[in-house]
Design a protein that fits this description.
disordered N terminus, 12 strands, 2 domains, 334 residues, four-stranded antiparallel β-sheet, alpha/beta, binds adenosine-5'-triphosphate, globular, Rossmann fold, six-stranded mixed β-sheet, single chain
Length: 334
């Protein structure tokens, strides 16, 4: 509104300035009445500007309401990206420890789900089971990515279907530069989609844009994958991989651990960036920190305990966990 008044002031230069003055509060409260008073005094430009601004404000309100209600309406209609039903899984070592004990989870297109829970609940195991880590064997249940039965697929096939895992402790790949690694992964996707591969020059142009968006030093490309990288640099490198591969569902396992405050914000911004570029992308974020969920704007929060999801809710659940801890969820009778 202040901008509108400033814009019209040259147009009312010939009118005595006092006559054109209107308090912001009165304009916001009763724009039609204030406008008509100005018109009666001959300040037609001001009168028109007040009405235009009022109409623009109600348009904005209407648009906001429409977008909010269509968001709510669409949430339940969006296609399901991940459907996990009654999954049980155990370790493949000699202990055969049962870790997932009947886990259910549905993620729809464009949603960000957070999984929280005490240490040892099975959060990382869930992430690794979904990408097909051979340290775990699924003994019951189903997991589908769209229409694809994930559990029938090899890990690289799951990746080609659009599943991505950012590791809690990203591994080093000695002797392979980030540029070669990213180009190989990206071209594998293009081959699977029967699209022509990008040569080094073409890929360099593509990846450079991503580096700029994510504020990552171009030196990253020439360094071997995660070799000599600090903890924070490794996490940023995971974000770079996610931005290049543009997965349907990205699983981020404690991507926020070990980050300083600025790095945490940068990683969260990278996540928001990827979502803004394609609002259909979905994410499953494993974290211990409510603050991180605020940055990444999680839609759904789940508490996992002893291999199951015990409670689900919206962002407010993370706030409550932050204030009160897990005890009220784990021992509701207390
Ligand atoms: N390959 C494995 N073999 C045997 N036990 C395992 C294996 N992987 C995980 N576990 C055990 O399963 C339980 C769940 O581990 P997991 O790493 O999934 O928990 P988490 O919820 O991610 O914990 P944190 O919050 O500490 O990262 C733990 O007790 C862990 O020791």
């Amino acid at each position: 509104m202040a901008m509108v008044m400033a814009t019209v002031s040259p147009a009312v230069g010939s009118v005595p300035p006092r006559a054109c003055r209107a308090s912001r509060a009165s304009v916001l409260r009763a724009p039609a009445a204030v406008s008509s008073r100005h018109a009666q005094k001959g300040c037609f430009a001001t009168a028109t500007a007040i009405l235009l601004a009022a109409s623009a404000r109600s348009e904005v309100r209407r648009a906001r309401y429409a977008s909010r209600s269509s968001h709510v309406r669409r949430a339940a209609d969006r296609p399901v990206v991940l459907e996990v039903q009654d999954v049980e899984a155990q370790s493949t070592d000699e202990d055969h420890k049962q870790i997932l004990k009947g886990l259910n989870l549905t993620i729809r297109e464009g949603e960000v789900h957070a999984v929280m829970g005490p240490n040892g609940s099975g959060k990382s195991t869930l992430a690794k089971v979904l990408i097909g880590d051979s340290a775990y064997e699924v003994t019951a249940g189903t997991a589908k990515l769209g229409e694809t039965d994930l559990l029938d697929k090899e890990p690289h096939e799951r990746a080609l279907e659009g599943l991505f895992l950012a590791f809690q402790s990203p591994p080093t790949v000695g002797g392979v530069s980030n540029l070669d690694f990213l180009r190989a992964a990206y071209n594998a996707q293009r081959r699977a989609r029967e699209e022509p591969e990008l040569d080094v020059i073409e890929f360099y142009g593509f990846v450079t844009e991503k580096l700029t968006e994510l504020k990552i030093n171009p030196d990253f490309l020439n360094r071997n994958v995660n070799e000599g990288f600090s903890g924070g640099e490794r996490k940023r490198n995971e974000m770079l991989q996610m931005a290049v591969l543009q997965p349907k569902l990205a699983i981020l396992d404690e991507i926020d651990s070990g980050l300083d405050i600025d790095a945490l914000k940068d990683v969260a911004e990278a996540i928001r960036n990827v979502r803004e570029q394609d609002p259909k992308r979905s994410m499953l974020v494993v974290t211990h920190f409510e603050r991180f969920l605020r940055y990444v704007e999680a839609d759904h929060v789940h508490v996992m305990y002893q291999g199951r999801i015990l409670k689900s809710g919206g962002k407010e659940l993370a706030d409550k966990l932050d204030e009160e801890g897990y005890d009220w969820v784990l021992n509701p009778a207390k």
